[in-house]
Amino acid sequence: MGDILFLAHRIPFPPDRGDKIRGFHILRHLAKLGRVHLAAFADDPRDMERKRGLVPFTASRSIIFRTKPQWIAALQAFATRQPVSLTAFASEPLRAAVQGILTRHSIDTIFVFSSQMAQYLPPPGRQRVIMDFCDMDSAKFDAYAASGRGPMRWMMQREANLLLAHDRAVADRVQASVFISDAEAQLFQSRARTGKIHVVENGIDTMHFDPAAAFKRIESVNGPLIVFTGQMDYRPNIEAVSWFANMIFPHIRVAQPAARFAIVGRQPTDAVKALAALPGVIVTGEVADVRGWLAAAQVVVAPLRLARGVQNKVLEAMAMARPLVVSAAAAEGIDHGDTIRIGATVGEIADHVLAVLADATSAASMGAAARAQVQRRYSWASRLAALDPLLGRVPGSVAKYLSF
């Protein structure tokens, strides 16, 4: 049995944001099935040092620091009639690293994490290829186009069309295409008209995300605390917190003047930082451990209007036994068992949040039920077991070099 090549658009360590969390757990699962060689990009200088954390799970690591400006990627995309999503991740050093791995090692399985990395696949041959699309990114750009105007609308629609064509071609050549939820898989099937589509859901580490675990608690915040967590340079998150802070939170403060809304996450844009000037709004920036803020929250919100796949932020808050108020888009793909409240409009979300804040006993019951649901439904081991038949391997067969 040969080795496994894992291609990732972002180094899957540390597992501290959505794509890196899924990538890390898949990588760790693959390491139980065979020797894994990782080829990935890093976009945070600190990750070039942190990559040592992957030593227990990988036989080799080829990490390229990605510095290409977006404007150069855009020029390359227009010159080559490709989506920017591909040219942004086009790299000769990584191409050479992948070729070196294929030359030096007997690779019989290639796992591609995100469709940008499919450009590094060798010509079809003896390797089994599993493509983890995660979400349907072309649909995200469709949504951007629908809300855009002028040249930006045209650019977003161009990206959506070219990316769909690319993803369709990739799906046609691989042995299995994986999506994070039934909704994403069905949407891709309806638009791409291709087969071999499978669903491998996200999980959650309920031992780490546990309100009883040992982690640093934050200092108490005066007044009821409402928390949003996420990567704060990501457009759907930016739009969500802006909508909540400007449109929804003022309604909440009429009834709860002491309420605070904390936006917790790294790399807040200037637009996000500016929200801190609003009454009761806190912008933390990067925090060492998000669990402290989740544990302190009276209610966690995820009012995303544009969301794809499964939101890790929702699973994390559920695991931390927090009452949740989310949009339908944020809840999509999650088997939450009616343990969270879902709203569509400003009024509905505000009313749900106020109802949670008004009844601490009911809120505690909501949180406990949410944690019980993820414990029953979302262990990583059970979710990733769906990969084994696609890979044709038996767990634990050749993982002697690992030290978990």
Task: Write up this protein.
The chain has 17 helices and 13 strands. The chain is an alpha/beta fold and 404 residues long. The strands form two sheets. Strands 3-2-1-4-5-6-7 form a seven-stranded parallel β-sheet, sandwiched between helices. Strand 11, helix 12 (312-319) and strand 12 form a beta-alpha-beta unit. Helix 6 runs antiparallel to helix 7 (150-173), helix 9 crosses helix 14 and helix 12 packs across helix 15.
Short structural description:
The chain contains 17 helices and 13 strands.
Low-pLDDT residue intervals, each spanning 5 or more residues: 397-404
Number of helices: 17
What fraction strand?
Answer: 15-25%
Evaluate the radius of gyration. Answer: 21 Å
Query: What string, H for helix and E for strand, traces the elements in order?
Result: EHEHEHHHEEHHEHEEHEHEHEHEHEHHHH
| Structure summary, number of beta strands | 13
Helix content: 40-55%
Based on the structure, what is the oligomeric state of the protein chains?
A: single chain
Please give the order of strands in the largest beta sheet. Answer: 3-2-1-4-5-6-7
Mean pLDDT: 92
Anisotropy-based shape: globular
Profile the largest sheet.
7 strands, parallel
Keywords:
six-stranded parallel sheet; 17 helices; disordered C terminus; single chain; alpha/beta; seven-stranded parallel sheet; 16% strand; 404 residues
Which helices and strands appear, and what pairs or packs with what?
Blueprint: E1 3-8, H1 18-30, E2 36-42, H2 47-50, E3 60-65, H3 70-80, H4 84-87, H5 92-104, E4 107-113, E5 128-134, H6 137-147, H7 150-173, E6 176-179, H8 182-192, E7 197-199, E8 225-229, H9 235-255, E9 260-264, H10 270-274, E10 281-285, H11 290-296, E11 299-302, H12 312-319, E12 324-326, H13 328-331, E13 341-342, H14 346-358, H15 360-377, H16 380-384, H17 388-391
Parallel strand pairs: 1-2, 1-4, 2-3, 4-5, 5-6, 6-7, 8-9, 8-11, 9-10, 11-12, 12-13
